[in-house]
Amino acid sequence: MRRYFARKVAIYLLTFFVAVTLNWLIPRFMPGDPVLRMLTRTSVSNPDAIAPMREYYNNVFGLDVPLWRQYLNYWAELLQGNMGISVWLFPAPVTEVILDAVPYTLALLIPSILLSWYAGNKVGALAARRRWLDNTVLPLGYALTATPYMWIAIVLAWSLAIIAGIFPVAGGYSFDLQPSWSLVFFNSLLQHWFLPFLSLFLVAFGGWAIGMRNMIIYELEADYANYLEALGAPRRLIRRYAFRNALLPQLTGLALQLGVLVAGALVTEIVFGYPGLGRLILMAIQNQDFFLLQGAFLFIVIGVLIANFVIDIVYVLVDPRTRTGMTGGAA
Amino acid sequence: MSMLSLERVTKRYRVGAFGGRELTAVRDATFAVKAGEVVSLIGESGSGKTTLGRMVLRLASVSGGHIRFDGTDVSRLKGRKLAGYYKHVQGVFQDPFSTYNPIFKADRVLHTIRPTFFPEVSAAEWRKRIDTALESVRLDPRQVIDKYPHQLSGGQLQRMLIARALLLDIKLLVADEIISMLDASTRIDVLNLLADLKERGLGILFITHDLSLGHYISDRAVILRRGVVVEMGTTDKVFGNPRHPYTRTLLSSVPQMHHKWTRADIARTIDGSCAIHDGGACAGEPQLVEVDDDHLVGCAAH
Amino acid sequence: MSDLARAAGEETAPSAGGEVVSAPAVPLATGPVAAAAPGARRTRDALHFALRNKKVVGGGIVVLAFLALGLIAPLFYDYGHSEYVGPQSSGPSGEYWFGTTTFGQDVFLQFVHGIRSTFLVGLLGGGLAALIGMTIGFVAGYIGGLVDEALNMLTNIVLVLPALAVLIILHTYIGITSVPSQALFIGIFSWPWVARAVRAQTFSLRTRDFVDLARLSGMGSGAIIRREIAPNMSSYLFMTFILLFGGSVLFAATLDFIGLGPTGVMSLGLMMNNAVHWSALQLGLWWWFLPPGLGITAIVGALYIMNVGLDEVFNPKLREM
Amino acid sequence: MSLRVDNLKVYYRTLRGDVKALDGATFTVADGEIMGLAGESGSGKSTLGKSLIRLDTRMRLVEGGVELDGKPLPIGDQDAMNAYRFKAVSLIPQYAMSALNPTRKIGKMISELLGARGVKYSEIKPELERRLDLVGLKREVLNNYPIELSGGMKQRMVLVLSTLLNPSLLIADEVTSALDVSTQRAVAETLVEFRDREFVKSMIVVTHDISLVYQIADTIMVMYAGKLAEKAPADVVVNAPRHPYTQLLISSLPEVGVRYADRKLAGIPGSPPGLLNPPAGCRFRDRCPLAFARCVEEPPFVEVDKNHHVACWKAQ
Question: Are B228 and B28 in contact (CB under 8 A)?
Fold first, then answer.
């Protein structure tokens, strides 16, 4: 088991390394002098930004030192938490800007992932045993997974916020409020949170429901299910086993889906003007704020890696085969 | 002069992702197959018998020792020379339905060998040769050509594979459990076919877990246990006067027609004492000892 | 056997019993390569069931209808999708079927052009991802050993790397100008699950005796993969491509929506971007933002439904449910 | 009379019509009898074995009835049959290696299964442990996951579990075919021991290996192409078979001592008929050296000697 985790962690570290390297490499791929090009772009939008940026560039890219040195400098700055200064929100450091936005994104992502996974699996398992439910869940599930995140967000914003007026259209909280630990503010947060959450939830839900339905059908064909049936076990028991066993591939599915879910959260935030990473990325793109963009990218990578690791741990807890298999049981 | 000879052939597997552990599947196997001779390689699952067959066929690499065919070390062969080897040495495997690619017609296996081995032979001529080969394994070409594997019986499929080997300039056939998945009423015919081919000069390495089959067809028998040869010699001696306790256990466990298991069988064999030292226990590395003319038994005392 | 199985399952650690592989977008319940349902009968049966399978036929009709619409409809217009041709912000009418934008552009024309890009990006992006994934999967699964270790490592790294985030960075810096180059980048980052799935399938096929027989016939590794292994997985590979197609479409739409799509090309994602940007929601111009999303959902959804149908066609077990 | 099967017909539904896999079987299995059910692939032996406990979704009960201990067994009714499974009729499946839920500890699975069948685990646990001792399994295996057991251990575990509630009838479906010669013998002898200790009243051992089943069975029933061919005490079937198929089959089996050079055995030419539209009359007649005009009529399965049933005109 230790080997299993060592391997996983090695993959994650390597991935992080690749991500950082990409981050460093991509600007250098651009034709011409990267620093000059960035500075000229920046000077258009925010002249004040030039001096601190030049300083950062000299630290990181310091063109008078060899390439490998530049690369190491980049890592050194990064490990000190220094990702440069945001152009768009000058003179705030990128790290700070991102840390302000991350809670909003997490507040959307974590509940929608967990709830959609839970509800989707439950409903999918139910559908596998009832024909009428299957006939409704299946088409609906496929329609939902085939829906682009931003479109469902648009439809919800238009119907429930603009037309029905039940929810606010945009923002993380009311314009007329200042962040505080008050009930009023919390209520406003919740109202603004609900629609973005719902749109993420709906799309993801469809995928889990279908996945579970299909997995259960396969599990019910497995030898152990056949044997239990031959021994007269009630369907309830067999379904319970099948459900539990089917959860394992669904957990893998969750790991595979993380990137897609994060992508969904980004565009959903954009539709609702929600103050998370997604909107930050959009602003960074529109303001040519490359430091902010790269910072956000690294944060997303770190987040996804951590989430993957958590899933690995849960997996080992749930599946005895990974535990025994790793300690060399006689198979 | 032996056509195929194995000298201290060893196979080690590396297991685990980075080859952390080593597993010896076959250790120091030494025996030979002459032209026109059937040698049975007998063992249970995990004995390494299939691995040995695969090494002879170059489907698995050899970790130690030498496999020589007509004096040439087989493990060095590459490219054209390997193809030349396959012209003389072929294999038939256990599961006929797995040996045929289910999505193609069965007689494809007879055609795919032409471009490699006989590019100079015309397609029309090849078809004639196919008919001859099929007839020599007692298959009616009209019944088996243009059929998919599932439309043929296991016996027909195995015969067709033997016909495929006959199309080549075959000298040695490695037959790995080729009849264990066939129905009882037809398996004996395939076995008889092998025996006929042997009489025409073909050498056969007959791999099986079934002692009665090994006894029926072979001139010499090699008993393999956990990768090690424990007893070998002429079939008469190994079966008629088994000396190693393992061989005896096998013989007493095999279900026989007309003879029921008795308690005595087990009592006689389970004690595990050394056959050569008459009840005494042996210690140390077992070596093969010649106990009789052309009859070797593994014993630790030598 | 246990070691082989474990080696196969280790990286995929998750996998109950049979290796069941799911696409990131849609969990696809395809078990280990459908057990040797033999050739002629299989093809005939497959066709027989495919043509009688409502999901395959229905999904196919929807997809083909959209494809035809995207290919043919733009030919009937003598003005471009971005030209200001009509009244501003007018609802659907006989002349402008899907109404017009706040600038008087023809929404229907934009829509059909968007469909074109959608199919193009799906075809190219999905095709490229399929190509990369299958190549890596076949090679890793067939060759095994250190090659497998290395490819597996690569696969796992690309797999956990959040593709959209990488694409955003790439697109921002490099600047995408055409649909094919957009498809190129999408393809480069969406193959890993295919590689993993194909690898697992190849692993199980590799141990079949017909592969050994092919080696005894003097065939090389490449020939064996192409002529023995791949044909056995054709139905699976086809379904994989469908899923990749859908995934590429959704990916492209997301990028287009953020404003990182190809310049000068109309796409369904860009339509939504424009609609949101120019406050179509607040202005109530529903004909502007509803069709593009509906179009994507219909095309991708139809593909997925078709896939379920194909799964039933190729797997008799599911047929009886 | 423990088991009485009367004119049982079970067909498989396929696209091209019904495959008549089991086409009219009438026989009895006495209390304490181990019956070997032998036949080649497609003979209907597995269909017969399975139909006595659970018809899968493609199988269809066409005709006939089954009585166990004097009471009719509702084999065509999945729900009604459930009450009898495990308790009255039980099964050791061919796939014993994968028969246990991989993600449950074995003991827990057994306890949940028993609980669902209205049996208290705690009450039966002492007996379960005694039986584990008997087959040489440590009691700790109950705390293991199936993956931690070797193939032979899993086989024995399934053996114990299937017979835990002392069923009247046990169906053992090719239980030894995946095993090595030495393990095979141990498992086969365990079956006999379970009968001797009355863990099961009677047993049907489905197999393709007559020489194996001869070692343990009291009677052997031979099937051919969906029909019963012969049923008799094991020694009679092996030493004095009356059906030409049985005779040819047995004479084609090599055994240690027989050598090609000394005595060349012969197989049975031809192959069994397809069961989609099997020919009328005796199904073996195309391959039978004794076939004569009357064989176009179907020979009944009749008692030609005490406890010796044969379906052949020549044997009567």
Answer: yes
pTM: 0.84
Chains in touch with C (3+ beta-carbon pairs under 8 Å) read A, B, D
> How far is Cα D145 from Cα D141, in angstroms, rounded to an integer?
8
Q: Which tens digits make up the pLDDT trace of D156-202?
A: 999 999 999 999 999 999 888 778 877 888 889 999 999 999 999 99
Residue C17 to residue D102, Cβ atoms within 8 A: yes
- Most A CBs within 10 A among D46, D104, D140, D147, hence the mutation to make, goes to D147
- The Cα-based distances of D185 to A319, B181, C64, D99 in angstroms read 35, 20, 62, 21
Minimum-distance CB partner of C320 among D57, D98, D102: D57
- How many Å lie between the alpha carbon of A127 and the closest alpha carbon of chain C? 12
Residues D78-130: tens digit of each pLDDT: 889 999 999 999 999 998 889 999 989 999 999 999 999 999 999 999 999 99
CATH of the domain at C200: 1.10.3720.10
Residue C14 touches partner D, C-beta closer than 8 Å: no
Number of domains comprising chain A: 1
- CATH number, domain containing residue B289: 3.40.50.300
D103 located within any domain: no
Full domain range(s) for residue C263: 107-321
Supply the range of the domain harboring residue B61: 4-88+171-297
B15 → chain C, closest CA residue: C3
Inside any domain, residue B132: no
Domain assignment of residue D152, yes or no? no
Domain hosting D250: range is: 3-96+168-187+196-315
Q: How many domains does chain C have?
A: 1
CA-to-CA distance for C308 and C318, rounded, in angstroms? 10
What does each C-alpha distance from A314 to A247, A251, B167, C14 come to in angstroms? 11, 9, 58, 11
Sheet holding D71-72, edge to edge: D17-29, D3-14, D59-68, D71-72
Find the CATH number of the domain harbouring D30: 3.40.50.300
Nearest chain A Cα to D147, which residue? A331
Tens digit of pLDDT at every position of chain C (321 positions): 233 222 233 333 333 333 333 444 444 433 333 333 444 556 676 777 788 888 899 999 999 999 999 999 888 888 888 888 878 888 888 888 888 888 889 999 999 999 999 999 999 999 999 999 999 999 999 988 889 989 988 998 888 888 888 888 888 877 788 899 999 999 999 999 999 999 999 988 888 899 999 999 989 899 999 999 998 888 889 889 999 999 999 999 999 999 888 888 899 999 999 999 898 888 889 999 999 999 999 999 999 888 888 877 876 555 543
Residue C239: per-residue pLDDT: 87
Residue A154 in any domain: the answer is: yes
Best residue of A7, A102, A152, A154 to probe chain C, by most C CBs closer than 10 Å: A154
Is A314 contained in some domain? yes
* Residue C82 lies inside a defined structural domain of this protein: no
B interface toward D at CB cutoff 8 Å?
A: 44-45, 153, 183-189, 191-192, 195, 209, 211-213, 215-217, 235, 239, 249-251, 253-261
Judged by CB atoms closer than 8 Å, whether chains meet at D53 and A230 is answered as yes
Give the whole-angstrom CA distance, residue A7 versus residue B16.
12
Instruction: Indicate yes or no: CB of C281 within 8 angstroms of CB of A285.
Output: no
User: Any chain D CB within 8 A of the CB of C1?
Assistant: no
Burial (CB count within 10 angstroms: exposed 0-12, middle 13-18, buried 19+), residue A79: exposed
| D145 interfaces chain A, CB cutoff of 8 Å | yes
- Structure token digits, residue A177: 């409020």
Say which CATH number the domain at A179 has. Answer: 1.10.3720.10
Which tokens is D314 given? 């020549």
How many Å is the maximal CA-CA distance in chain D? Answer: 64
Residues 6+ positions from C75 with CB-CB distance below 8 Å: none
